[in-house]
Design goal:
The structure is a single chain. This protein is mainly beta. It has one domain. Helices cover 14% and strands 50% of the residues. Strand 14 and strand 15 form a beta hairpin. The longest helix is centred in the middle third of the chain and has 13 residues. It is globular, with a radius of gyration of 18 Å.
Length: 262
């Protein structure tokens, strides 16, 4: 049986760039490939978990960008990489993220680096979690070093980029009628001073589209922006729709994605 999942965020002060929206939208990029016992590796053995490409359009016709999501197990830790290319004002701007977490049930966050370019302006963000409790973040915009951000982090907190793995781990609870909650640190959000954002998930029955495409349909409310996406049986999002702005992300091949803006 397929299910529909609804995610509701309790706060919405996040930045409006697409990368921030992606932070909690793509819930199921890793799924079964990570959770299957048959794919378990010996301790500390490096392996690739997921390498997925997506294209993005606006209003179903304007080619807006593409991105790659890659997850690996490195020296017993989970390593997430994201690389986004966006066409804005006739420029191709890029965003890159690398983040590590512990390979445990809590997905304990360790550290991350975010880098973006907008025309000739660069943004670099380096965050480290000390003992899983104290977050320290350094931000540099161009040549300007901003004040270091330090804040305590409570339990049940993850990096936003690891939310897909968190959700995959919680699916058994969701199917049993539970509504687990979480807190997520948005890695590219200096405007919020990297305050964790709370959220919760709920499982619903499938709709017609989910049945026809043999996927699970997920409805999301994030920064007061509803979105809908469809996830296949392996836990991979095959299509995501953002309402309002008309942004659509679709699973693609690497070859098609790299040619998407040419």
């Amino acid at each position: 049986m397929k299910y529909r999942i609804t995610l509701s965020l309790q706060r919405s002060p996040l930045s409006t760039n697409l990368y921030t929206m992606k932070s909690l939208i793509f819930l199921a990029l890793f799924g079964a490939a990570y959770l299957s016992p048959s794919l378990a590796s010996p301790p500390n053995k490096d392996r690739l978990i997921r390498d997925t490409w997506y294209t993005m359009t606006l209003n179903n016709k304007i080619r807006f960008g593409y991105y790659n999501e890659r997850v690996e197990l490195k020296q017993g830790r989970l390593f997430f990489q994201s690389h986004v290319w966006k066409k804005e004002e006739d420029f191709i701007n890029e965003e890159q993220l690398g983040a590590f977490s512990e390979d445990n049930s809590q997905l304990t966050p360790l550290f991350f680096n975010f880098h973006s370019t907008y025309r000739t302006t660069e943004l670099n963000i380096d965050g480290t979690l000390q003992d899983g409790k104290m977050l320290q973040v350094k931000v540099r915009k161009g040549s300007q070093e901003l004040p270091v951000v330090r804040r305590s982090v409570g339990p049940n907190t993850i990096f936003a980029q690891f939310f897909p793995l968190w959700l995959a781990k919680k699916l058994p609870e969701l199917k049993n009628g539970k509504n687990p909650s979480f807190y997520a640190i948005i890695e590219d959000n200096p405007e919020l001073n990297f305050a964790p954002v709370s959220g919760r998930a709920r499982l619903e029955k499938p709709d017609k589209t989910a049945i026809e495409t043999k996927t699970q349909k997920l409805s999301v409310v994030f920064q007061d922006l509803p979105s809908t996406w469809w996830v296949d049986d392996t836990g991979v999002a095959v299509r995501i729709e953002m309402s309002g702005g008309g942004t659509v992300a679709e699973k693609s091949t690497k070859e098609k994605a790299l040619q998407f803006l040419k």
